[in-house]
Amino acid sequence: MSRVRVKFCGLTRAEDVAAAVALGVDAIGLVMTRRSKRFVDLEAALALRAQVPPFVATVVLLLDDEPAWVREVISRVTPDLLQFHGEEPADYCTGFGLRYLKAIPMASVDNVSAYTQRHAQAAGFLLDSHAAGGQGGSGQAFDWTRVPRELGRPLVLAGGLNADNVAEALRLASPYALDVSSGIETAPGIKNSEKMQHFMQALAAAGADRELR
Ligand SMILES: O=C(O)c1ccccc1N[C@@H]1O[C@H](COP(=O)(O)O)[C@@H](O)[C@H]1O
After folding, report:
1. Residues contacting residue 88 through CB under 8 Å, at least 6 positions apart
2. ipTM beyond 0.90?
3. Is the dihedral of CA 7, 16, 198, 141 positive or negative?
4. Stretch 7-34: mean pLDDT
5. Nearest 5°: CA angle at 28, between 142 and 55?
6. Is the sign of the CA dihedral 72, 89, 177, 168 positive or negative?
7. pLDDT at 134
8. Strand-pair category, 2-3 with 5-9
9. 7, 12, 85, 161, best to mutate for ligand 1 pocket (most atoms within 8 Å of CB)
10. Which position among 91, 128, 143, 164 bears the catalytic label?
11. How confident is the model at residue 180 (pLDDT cuts 50, 70, 90)?
């Protein structure tokens, strides 16, 4: 038995980081691709990162970004983990020398295990509802019965999660971790403390301590 981990992603405000940490999240996500409405620049990311205490991970989300930008983000923000959400090939992802999650666009991937084999060095896989070439963070869920039983790596479930569906997500997908953004906000990048709290309460009520894959 193990506890389901939680990442709140797309935080842009100090008060939202403080609320997330107080609620006991395992990771916060900073979106540092300029394509996103939740983009935070280097100065903002540095300030938010400085607020994150030990034992809470800082994950930086990128999407088909220029390597020079990725290197600058790594050296300035010092994230614990990268999350590549685009069509980045394995040699690009491994080239930065930092552990990474690879997002899998479930709307356009039929064979998940073939996809994971191309990213043998990924620390884990994040299954999201978008199609290749599209963006995540849409608040849309995919069919969770499509989540494979065995990935051989930690599986992070994302896409349209909220307090109302988290129990069903756990039941159908048994993920290692949950990643939520739209479901805890009032507008892109503006998190809502009540929604954050409701999400964590719903997770606890659903039994966050469970057998995981
Ligand atoms: O949050 C964004 O703006 C974003 C932009 C580009 C790619 C991914 C993005 N977010 C990630 O998408 C998933 C699902 O989010 P949601 O809960 O459906 O809003 C999650 O991993 C976000 O971190």
Report:
1. 62, 64, 102
2. yes
3. negative
4. 98
5. 125
6. positive
7. 77
8. unpaired
9. 85
10. 128
11. very high
DSSP class of residue 55?
T
Q: Which two tokens stand for residue 190?
A: 């503006």
* Residue in the block written with tokens 């309460």: 201
Quick check: CB of 183 below 6 Å from ligand 1? yes
Written as six digits, the tokens of 84 are: 């590549």
Cβ–Cβ < 8 Å for 64, 87 = yes
Residue 108 Cα to chain centre, angstroms: 19
85 lines ligand 1 (CB under 6 A): yes
pLDDT for 151: 86
Fold designation for 2-210: TIM Barrel (3.20.20)
Q: Is the pLDDT of residue 209 over 90?
A: no
Lookup: tokens for 101: 């999650």
Task: Identify which of 89, 67, 68, 11 has the alpha carbon closest to the alpha carbon of residue 44.
Answer: 11
Q: Is the pLDDT confidence value at 207 over 90?
A: no
Q: How many Cα atoms sit within 13 Å of 50 on the Cβ side?
A: 8
Q: Is 93 a catalytic residue?
A: no
Q: Is the CB of 192 under 6 A from ligand 1?
A: no
Does the active-site annotation cover 9? yes
58-103, pLDDT tens digit by residue? 999 999 999 999 999 999 999 999 999 999 999 999 999 999 999 9
181 alpha carbon – ligand 1 mean position (Å): 6
**So what's the pLDDT on residue 194?**
98
